[in-house]
Q: What sequence folds into this?
């Protein structure tokens, strides 16, 4: 069922959606909140459909059947091409009569819903679900404080999303890219991160999540506390401090190991750029993401070997000076474009 292609009338006809509006349980609520976070463009249609369904349920009398009010709403929305006909005195009178009848029906309906049926039930306005998006382009990192006090350091080329009900009955976020989480402890409301095909659940801890869409593996590295990681197949693994989990998105496998060099994976959040026997293409990728530049290799450029180095909050020129001296190349900078030559 492709809800992302639904119109307002499709939602009104859908049994699962109508049941959620009328009698929301935790399972249905979780589903729709998560679905809205992934499909924010459908929020308007969702809210219109909810308001229409609730409006027809105001009365204590037996409500219309679902197909009846769906058809009724569909007829209201349908815009058919009007037929042309000569405007005679008879047709003109008929038009005025039809307008008067339709107006009377609309006014009567609104009067009944809001002034008569409304007294038989305490009507509360629907709370619209909105989606908050935090995103960084290349060359930028940011620190975000979530409503529950959790701190999130978001890396470059990364997106964090969460909805307006975060912290009320759920603490759930979605991540694309990389982020370091320092989660505020709450025993009654676990914190859930969905990223790269897996779900990470914690109570209160600090850890790093790396889930770039162009990379094969999703990585979870725990600094303090403990986390539980689950995949779509129902597999679940608990991680303790200085432990790492790698999830292969293609093979659907989970691999747990000890992280012997924690700094290498989390130093980015403190502005420290680390190269650890990185091949030259990885060095280029890191520089482009870190400084938002485009690097081009000259024709017939001899690619050097692996590179190791560490730079704490250094400028691009200083980093390039260090790499070029060790690897034996020259470079020139023109705006955000860099040319590397022998």
A:
């Amino acid at each position: 069922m492709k809800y992302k292609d639904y119109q307002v009338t499709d939602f009104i006809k859908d049994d699962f959606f109508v049941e959620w509006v009328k009698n929301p349980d935790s399972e249905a609520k979780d589903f729709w909140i998560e679905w809205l976070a992934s499909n924010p463009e459908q929020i308007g249609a969702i809210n219109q459909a909810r308001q229409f369904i609730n409006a027809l349920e105001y009365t204590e009398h037996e409500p219309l059947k679902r197909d009846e009010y769906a058809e009724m709403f569909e007829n209201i929305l349908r815009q058919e091409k009007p037929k042309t006909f000569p405007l005679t005195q008879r047709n003109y009178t008929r038009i005025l009569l039809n307008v008067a009848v339709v107006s009377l029906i609309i006014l009567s309906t609104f009067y009944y819903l809001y002034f008569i049926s409304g007294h038989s039930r305490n009507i509360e306005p629907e709370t619209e679900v909105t989606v908050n998006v935090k995103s960084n382009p290349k060359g930028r990192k940011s620190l975000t404080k979530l409503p529950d006090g959790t701190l999130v350091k978001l890396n470059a080329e990364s997106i964090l999303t969460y909805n307006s009900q975060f912290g009320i009955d759920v603490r759930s976020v979605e991540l694309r890219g990389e982020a370091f989480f320092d989660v505020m402890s709450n025993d009654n409301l676990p914190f859930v991160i969905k990223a790269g095909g897996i779900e990470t659940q914690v109570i209160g801890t600090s850890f790093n999540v790396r889930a770039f869409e162009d990379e094969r593996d999703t990585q979870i590295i725990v600094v303090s506390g403990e986390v539980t990681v689950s995949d779509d197949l129902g597999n679940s693994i608990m991680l303790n401090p200085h432990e790492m989990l790698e999830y292969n998105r293609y093979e659907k496998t989970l691999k747990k190991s000890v992280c012997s060099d924690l700094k290498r994976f989390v130093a980015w959040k403190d502005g420290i750029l680390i190269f650890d026997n990185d091949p030259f293409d990885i060095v280029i990728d890191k520089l482009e993401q870190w400084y938002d530049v485009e690097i081009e290799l000259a024709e017939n450029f001899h690619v050097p070997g692996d590179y190791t180095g560490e730079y704490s909050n250094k400028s691009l020129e200083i980093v390039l000076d260090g790499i070029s001296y060790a690897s034996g190349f020259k470079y020139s900078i023109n705006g955000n474009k860099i040319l590397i030559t022998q």
About this structure: The chain has three domains: 3-120, 131-264, 271-341. Residues 228 and 241 are 12 Å apart (CA to CA). The chain has a mean pLDDT of 81.
